[in-house]
Amino acid sequence: MSGMLFTSMQWFMVFCAVVCTVRLVLGPTAADRLVALNVMSGIVLAFLVLRGVQQGRHIYLDVALVYDIFGFLGFLAIARFLKDRLEHEEES
Q1: Whole-structure pTM value
Q2: Taking the CA of residue 55 as centre, how many other CA atoms within 13 Å lie in the half-sphere pointing to its CB?
Q3: Distances in Å between the alpha carbon of 60 and those of 10, 44, 45, 48?
């Protein structure tokens, strides 16, 4: 029973990742793309945790933690870049 639950949750994560990828590619603004990228990072994080719990391997949870830290730092860097770009566009 729990195997079927984990499998269905993983397929749901794949579906959400596909939807976020569409938004990432077709997003009309850079802010939409940034939000889609951040949501995609959360989906990958949840997928790693699901696989770690399903297989009983703690290494997936460690990788998920490191991935989350780097994802957050990347999100901050991209947000700062977009903020600086918007400030330069307003000055022009």
Answers
A1: 0.79
A2: 12
A3: 15, 11, 10, 6
Cα 59 off chain centre by = 19
d(CA 69, CA 28): 28
In contact, 2 and 50? CB cutoff 8 Å: no
Domain layout of the chain by residue ranges: 2-91
Q: At which residue do the structure tokens 């870049």 appear?
A: 81
Identify the burial level of 22 via C-beta atoms within 10 angstroms of its C-beta, where 0-12 means exposed, 13-18 middle and 19 or more buried: exposed
> If we measure between CA atoms, which residue out of 35, 44, 36 comes closest to residue 68?
44
Between CA 31 and CA 48 the distance in angstroms is 26
- pLDDT, tens digit (0-9, with 9 covering 90-100), for 68-79: 899 889 888 888
Residue 28 CA to residue 43 CA, distance in Å, equals 22
